[in-house]
Amino acid sequence: MGALKVKGNNGSGMIFTYLQNGVVSEYQISNGKKLLAVRMIFHRNVDGKNVELKVLNLIHPSGKISIYYENVPEEMGKNELRSNVYGRFECGGNKCHLYSDLH
After folding, report:
1. CA dist., res. 5 & res. 12, Å (int)
2. 30 forms bridges with which residues in the sheet?
3. CA–CA separation, 73 vs 58, rounded Å?
4. Is there a contact between 43 and 51 (Cβ–Cβ < 8 Å)?
5. How far apart are CA 64 and CA 72, in angstroms?
6. What is the Cβ-side half-sphere exposure of residue 92, based on CA atoms within 13 angstroms?
7. For every one of its 103 residues, what pLDDT tens digit does the chain have, with 9 covering 90 and above?
8. Taxonomically, which superkingdom (predicted)?
9. Which own/partner contact pairs does 28-34 have at CB distance under 8 Å and 24+ positions apart?
10. Which residues lie across from 98 on neighbouring strands?
11. Taking Cα atoms as reference points, which of 71, 50, 24 lies closest to residue 15?
């Protein structure tokens, strides 16, 4: 599992990426003024070969979140790779919750 946690003045959020039988070996981070980019590099054995699969998470200044999957082998099943986005934001004096389950 790979995890990206972000905290700001108005709330916090997390992006979790799950890969069955996969291991995150590396994170690549680029924190520019216009964009936060975090690439998670997973390794997994597929048909006896070590496969490197990458998940790129982009957070734009507008709050838009983009998730890109790279090098996903065709042999992988539909439910083996999943990203979840969770957020908690302040709304007036009360807490508001945002939950999204992306596949």
Report:
1. 8
2. 37
3. 22
4. yes
5. 23
6. 1
7. 676 666 666 666 677 777 777 777 788 888 887 888 888 888 888 778 888 888 888 888 777 888 888 888 777 766 777 777 766 655 555 555 555 544 4
8. Eukaryota
9. 34/60, 34/61
10. 87
11. 24
In the chain, the amino acid numbered 41 is I
Q: Is the dihedral of CA 64, 36, 27, 99 positive or negative?
A: negative
Return the residue matching tokens 């939950």. Answer: 99
CB 61 within 8 A of CB 36: no
Strands 11-19 and 23-31, bridge-based pairing: unpaired
Distance CA 8, CA 69 (A): 26
Rounded to 5 degrees, what are φ and ψ at 10? -100, 5
Decide if 27 contacts 40 (C-beta within 8 A): yes
Residue indicated by tokens 């919750």: 97
